[in-house]
Amino acid sequence: SALLLFISIMTMFMSGVVAIFEYDLKKIIALSTLSQLGMMMFSISLGLYELAFFHLLTHALFKALLFLCAGILIHGAGNTQDIRSFGGLSLNFPLVTVCMNLANLSLCGVPFLAGFYSKDLIVELACQYSWGIFVLLMMFICLSLTVLYSVRLTYLSFVGPYGGGTLISVCESDYSLVGPVVILSFTSLVSGPILSWLNFPAPVLIFLPVFLKWGALFFVGVSLLVMLSLQGLTYSYKWGAVSKFSGLMWFLPW
């Protein structure tokens, strides 16, 4: 279980770091899936099998929503996957923007969305284990990385300056595209408590020190502020070797 713990934490860390330097929309979402799979393996390594399955279910719903929204964006933006060519898409895709940000917030573990119920429970129960400060710190850093790449994706796609892509889209008038997205958005809102009640008939009360109890939300909030303040530097800083190293998935394909 110690080996699985180490591999799962390093998987979460690697996928989070790589996603921050990635510009391909589908790759960013695929890397976030890899990160959440690492979270499930982390839960299993601690012996929390039911929680891993619970996170698998909630993650399936909001990640399906994320991929569908990405598909609509790619289709509507002239079949480009490069988020640098998006920018300001909230004007062309208001409904998809709302739904995709809902899925992103759920992925980050924002309270009372689907991802929060499973993710926060894994974090709080992991805090009760005596694996040491390194494991706890890496876990919180991996949580922060999830917020960092999610905010970056949202900013470059919907909020940031226009990147040269298509200006007019008729995707949102197609109900066969938008219908499933709206349904999955509803499940991303309500599936957390419903699946929690179905999976765990007895409520769980976890006693932790205040700094650990608020640790997850603190790291989420700080990461949000850090990434928002760094967005102006997105095109100006040149990381060079670090960016290349991350873009090549830490040389794993080689």
TrEMBL record:
Residue ranges annotated for the NADH dehydrogenase subunit 5 C-terminal domain, each copy included: 149-253
Alphabetical list of InterPro entries matching this protein: NADH_DH_su5_C (IPR010934), ND/Mrp_TM (IPR001750), NU5C-like (IPR003945)
Residues annotated as transmembrane: 6-25, 37-54, 60-79, 91-117, 129-151, 177-198, 204-228
Main localization (coarse): mitochondrion
EC number: 7.1.1.2
Keyword Transit peptide: no
Role played: Core subunit of the mitochondrial membrane respiratory chain NADH dehydrogenase (Complex I) that is believed to belong to the minimal assembly required for catalysis. Complex I functions in the transfer of electrons from NADH to the respiratory chain. The immediate electron acceptor for the enzyme is believed to be ubiquinone.
The protein, known as: NADH-ubiquinone oxidoreductase chain 5
Gene: ND5
